[in-house]
Structures are given as C-alpha cells and as structure tokens.
Write the structure tokens for this entry.
Amino acid sequence: MSDEAEFPSRYAPVDVDLRNPILAAMLAWLWPGAGHLYQRRFGKGALFMVCVLTTYFFGLTIAEGHVVFVRLKQPHPHYSFLGQIGVGLPAMPAVAQKVAKDMGWGPLFGGVMAPPSGKVSIDQHDELASWHEKLGFAFELGVLFTTIAGLLNVLAIFDAYAGPVFTVPGAQPGHQASPSSD
Amino acid sequence: MFDPLFAALPMEEINRLWYALPLVVTISLVYGATRHELPGPIIEHALRFGLWIITFMAIIFVVLWLVTWGL
C-alpha cells in the first residue's frame, strides 16, 4: 500500500531540503532555530527560537542568573548543565566564567552564570546554599526551565540534521512514514 | 463549597502549578514540530500531546495525593 493511500494527505511526508545537515545541526546547537533558518525552514526556525529561548531566559531570569553554571565535581555537582548546554551560545558565558575562575580572575559579566565562589561543602553555609536560601522555589524552577530548554533544543538539532520524524495519528507505534521516491 | 482535595494544599502550592503551563505549551509545540513540517499538523500534534501531558500529570497528581493521604 502506498503512503498516499495509507495516510491522510495532510500528514503525508513533505520533501525537505536539509542543505548541509551537519552545518545545520551545528548552527541549530549554536543558536536555537538558526539551523532551520539556514535551511530556509523559517516557520520552524522561528518556532524553535521563540520556544527554546523564551523558556531558557525565563528560567535564567527568575533565578537571577545563578542556575546556569559549570561545576561538575563533588560535592553538589551541577549536572543540569549537561542539559543546559544544549542551548549553545546562550549557555557559553557559564563556560567563560568557569575558565575565569580557574585562571584566578574575578567573576565576569557581573557574576551572571558564575559558579559559586569559595569552597562548596556539605556542612557549611557556602554561596550555593545562600542562593538556595535566597531564591528558594525560584532556584528549582530556574534549573527546570533552563534544563528543559536545552533538552528541547537537542530535539531541534536532530530535526535540523535529519528532518522531521513524520508520524500519523492512529498509526501503529514505530511506523514511520517515509517520503515516496517519485 | 468545601473541596477536600484543594483544602489539603496551601494556596501557594496550587499557584505553583501555573508554571507548568508554559512548559507544557513549549514542550508540545517543539515535540510536534519534530514530527511534522507543516503548521497545521504541528499544531494538531501539539494539542494532542499537550492534552496527553496534562492527563498524565493529573493521574500522577491523584496517585500522589492518595498515597500521601493522612500524612
């Protein structure tokens, strides 16, 4: 049975010109939506850009810039950064802050995305603890929003690299429609 | 009218649930956009997926509410 007969026409796969998929994926990581704009998929580019960046910057703002930072060592490793890095350039100041700290320089950009200063320990009131104390629920919310934004952009990166995974409502799970060869 | 479900929760906790709404919208739209190329199917997919997320969250909410009953 052909795809056209099997699926409603509105859900039929659409030919997508991915141009250079690797370059598009890299652009999509660097700036959410940029890979799709490069592929001239302007609607989806705008959609990814607005959704991902709004979510990311909302989370960053509500937590006063303290929820995106690089700290992967014990105690209290900030593993959320592995998700947050998915938004690309908007998370890069955190890497610059980490380098600045390791080099012994002061925090850059007014301390936004800087890792907690001083020693972080389990049994002492360090700067990380003071952020939690000051921000409370906003800190958790900021981590959630910024991490989800990064993970959503991973989906967008895959879409820029390989195009959409066409699915049809009611179709059997795992059944993926493929563009016809004609 | 007395509502035993929400009477057990402080109003501050209930208001926090509103933060889930923008997340559901963005996740649904982005997920829908990775499954389709045209705006119509993207929106339809996002609506179905958003409804599924809210239903799932509601089920989890009720399960947690029941297992913590009386704590």
The two ends of chain A are 15 Å apart (CA to CA). The helical segments of chain A are 3-6, 21-30, 34-38, 42-62, 81-84, 92-102, 127-135, 137-162. Residues 174-182 of chain A have pLDDT under 50 and may be disordered. Chain A is about 50% helix and 0% strand.
